Each structure stands twice: as C-alpha cells, then as structure tokens.
Amino acid sequence: MLAALVLASTAAFGLAGNFATTGFIHHQQARQLNELSEVVLRRSEVAVDLAAASLDELAGRGFANCDPTALQAVRLHIYQRSAIKDVRLANPDGSVICSAYSETLEFDKGWVDRADMLSSDDKKLLLFRVEQFGGDALGILRDIDAKKALVAIVRINATLFDIMPADLRDHSEVLLALNSGETLGEFALGTDKALPSPIEFQKTSTRFPLRTTIRVDRAVLSHWNAEVYWPAMAIVLVLGALFGLLLARSRRTEGPIADLDRAIARSEFKPYFQPIFDLRTGAIKGCEILARWQREDGSVVPPMNFIPLAESSGRIQVMTWHLLQRALSDLRPHLRAHKDFKLSLNVVPKHLLSAGFVETLRRTVLSARVSARQIMIEVTERDELDDLARAAALVAQLRSYGFRVAIDDVGVGHSGLSRLKGLGANTIKIDKYFVDTIAIDASTTTIVEMLVVLAKDLEMTVVAEGIETEDQRHALMACGVEQGQGYLVAAPLPYARFMELLEEHASRRRSETSHSSNAMVA
Ligand code: C2E
Ligand code: CA
Ligand code: CA
Fold first, then answer.
1. Are 118 and 126 spatial neighbours (Cβ–Cβ below 8 Å)?
2. Which uninterrupted H or E stretch holds 129?
3. pLDDT tens for each residue of 229-250
4. Are 485 and 278 in contact (CB under 8 A)?
5. C-alpha–C-alpha distance, residues 327 and 296, integer Å
6. Gap between the Cα atoms of 83 and 157, Å rounded
7. Where are the domains of the chain?
8. Is 323 a pocket residue for ligand 1 (Cβ < 6 Å)?
9. Atom 10, ligand 1: residue with shortest CA distance
10. How far apart are CA 272 and CA 330, in angstroms?
11. What is the tens place of the pLDDT at every residue in 393-437?
12. Domain topology for 256-518
C-alpha cells in the first residue's frame, strides 16, 4: 500500500516533471536563441549606425565631392574604420559619381537604382545589397543634399555572426538579410551541409530594413543545455517520493473515521448470528445479529471497538442497514421456511429516533420478502432514552406494522423498571451481568424474579444473555426466564457456521422425536 502510493506519486511527479523540465529547457533554449538573434541584429544596426555616422562626418567636413584631396581624406577615414570597404559619391538616383577606391568599382557585379534601395526609419538613409566578387556587402546611402548622396560599402564581417555557443556552432546558421529577403551575410561552418530539420528564430529591426535569422538543428537542440534535465528530474522524483510518503502518512493518520468509511465502502462489516434458544427444550427460536468487522488481513474486530465510533460519527445508520440487508439475504430461505423464527437487530436509540427509520426498516424487510413479525428490534436501555414519549410512539408504530421490539441490557441501564413499563416493548433482555451472578448471588435472583414478574404483567417475553453454564440455565429457568442466549449453545457465528448449527439442532430434534415416539410405541 505504502510502496504503491510512493511509486504512483513518484511516477506522477516524474511524468509532470519531465514535461515541466523539458518545457522549461525548451523555453530557456528559445529565449536564448531569440536573444542571440537580437545580438546579431544589434551588431548589424551598430554597423549601419557607424557607417551613417562616418558619412555624416565626411559630409560635415566638406568631403562630399570628388576632389583628390577630399578622396584622400576619405581614404584615411576608411583606413581607420575596418568595417567600411569604400565610400562613394552618388547622384540622388543612386548612380555612382566617384569612389575613394575607384578600383573597387571593378569588383561590383551590379549596382541597384535608388528605387530598389530600402528605406529606413531615417528617410535619408537607404540600404541595399552590393554584389561583389569576393562577397556581398551592404550599401548604405546617405542623402547629403538635393544633388548628392554619400554611400558607404560595409563589409559584412563574419565576426558579426560569430556568436553561437560551441555546442551549436556546427549545427546552426546565422543570417543577416535585407527585408527584401536578399542575404547580406551568412555564418555557417558546415555551409555545404543543409540543416536536416531546422528550428528558426528571426528578429527584424525597427530602424533599418534588416533582419537576422538563426537556424538550429532540432536534434542538436534537444541535447543542448539539457544538463539541467537530470538534476531537475532528480529533484522532481525525490519530491514525488516524499509526496507519496506524506500522502501515505496522511492516509494512515486520517483517523479511525476514515478507516470506518473505507470498511463500509468495502463491505467489511459482516453479520454474525448468535442463536436464541428455549431454556427448557434447547430449541433455537431465533438469532441476534452481532456485527463483526472482518478486516482485509483476516482479523475480526469486535463491535465494542467500532460501534461507539460509528454511533458518534453518524456512520451507525448506514452500517445498521447494511448489516440487516446482508442478514436478510443470508437468512431469507430459513426465515421463509420457519415463520416462527425471529431475527434480532441491534439499533441505537439515536438511530431509532431518527427520521425515516420505520419507513426504511419496512422497505428493507418488505423487499427481502420477509414478514415483519419475524424481525425484532433491540434497543438498549444502557444509554438513557431521554425522550421516552417519542420512543414509546415509535415502538407503537413498529408494533403496528408487526415488528417486535426488545429492550436490551435490562438491569444495567438508567431507565429503571418503571420506565420500561411505558415503552410497550415485546421482550426484555436481561443483561449478562445478572446471569453471571445468578447461580451464586441471592440478591441477583431476587432482581431477576422481579423482572420476570414485571414482564409477565406487561405480556413481555424474557431473554437472558450470556448463559455459559448449565447452572446458570437452571437458575434462570427457576426464576421463570423462558429464553436465553449464550456460549452454552453457541457464540455468535458467521452465516455458514450458523446454518450448520441450525442443521445440527434440527437433526438432533428429529432423532429425539423419533426416539420418544419409539418409546411411546414400546
Ligand atoms: P449485546 O447486544 O448485549 O450482545 C450480546 C453480547 O454478549 C455480544 O457481544 C455477544 O457476543 C456476547 N455474548 C453472548 N453470549 C455470551 C456468553 O455466553 N459469554 C460471553 N462472555 N459473551 C456472550 P458482542 O457481539 O461483542 O457485542 C457487544 C455489543 O455490541 C452488543 O451487546 C451490542 O450492544 C453491540 N452490537 C453488536 N452488534 C451490533 C450492531 O449491529 N448494532 C448495534 N447498534 N450494536 C451492536
Ligand atoms: Ca443485543
Ligand atoms: Ca447485553
């Protein structure tokens, strides 16, 4: 039970933990790769900003012309700024007028018209791709005045993209492109190898028509940063086991009421049957249902260990009905075959006085197709029947339907003999306390005799409980007690054993009657 709970809890935590940890790792990876895309974009933006600032500076210093001195100054400027390959003077339409390094013009594969250049947030700044032998470059056009513009040719440096963590470098690509989709630069170590199943992270600049893309192989990603997986899972699994233990503990310490509920749900309460016999002949006249809690482990719990709790926790009702139903279904054949056989059921006063008791009793007995006359309700007078008038009304109601009522534990209770008169019961059951002493104590004999007289006056039968010896049986008979119950005949028995006992008695009686009839013939 404990192991199962701990195992189940650990498994549940493990499953949830796997999802959570994997989810967390994926989330962390995505965040990290998004950040890297952002870094590439920022670096590119800085490169554009630097180039634009250079052009502004050159224009400000009056070098936006094709004079040799101006071009000389521009070349110096370029020399100091490694990212810029060349600076050109252009017409407003974008066509080149002159270049700081005129020979680089020969490397151009083509040159775009202004119409094909992409505008920025800053309208005086246009971006375009410069296709050159030996690698593409980024062209940045800065309008100086209505007649001319300056263009910087910016090298798209690999260092701009070299940001990928070592684990991912060989399995990822970093791209910088214009918003038009034209690639400006690319960083991919295994350039010839296409990524089998890439995940893409993209960032677009709000200032320039630029975007960066990082693509990572999905398979590699599942290992990357997964170092946290097992430590995280270990913590989760330990927590799961601890939770299971706590749960098991809490279930165990949930208390006896929870135990009771579980036992009720599992039908662990069973009726045992103790015969009620004729003291003189020994014939079995009926039986009393005595509850037993048969636990899963086979142990049997006596009623005094759970009836008081069942009563105080309000479980006694459901338990009582359950016991009666089982007893009725067990004994139905016998009850129907022997119409004078009585079945006694213990009912606590609280239950008897609760709403719907009589109705439920009737329904239960009726649906078992057993006569109400065969059912005896035993109400203990051990606890005070505080509302004697109501109890009497209920007894009257029960009797009007044919049920019998017995007052249990007579002699040890609070009521006193006078109160018993008003109740209108059919039977009084003399407590074992008197039976224990009847054979040895004269005062007990007096009390029992008085009880018997009272019972006869009220037309009640008397049953003595707990008869263990022949001496007790004789002493009780001498007091006028007619029926009894006790180990002398049988202890409370489970159904099958009780039926065996009934069968035994019946066959003994058959042989006795055949003996006596034989004797009469003889
Ligand atoms: P009770 O109604 O007075 O039942 C008689 C008790 O005396 C039973 O104890 C029975 O086993 C025991 N007994 C019978 N003959 C002898 C004997 O010769 N010697 C000895 N030493 N004991 C004998 P049990 O079964 O332990 O029940 C104890 C009490 O628990 C019952 O006393 C009754 O008050 C209560 N109880 C049992 N079953 C139920 C039930 O289903 N509902 C309610 N409300 N109370 C129950
Ligand atoms: Ca009883
Ligand atoms: Ca008793």
1. yes
2. strand 125-130
3. 777 778 778 887 777 777 766 5
4. no
5. 20
6. 7
7. 16-236, 256-518
8. yes
9. 492
10. 11
11. 999 999 999 999 999 988 776 556 666 778 889 999 999 989 998
12. TIM Barrel (3.20.20)
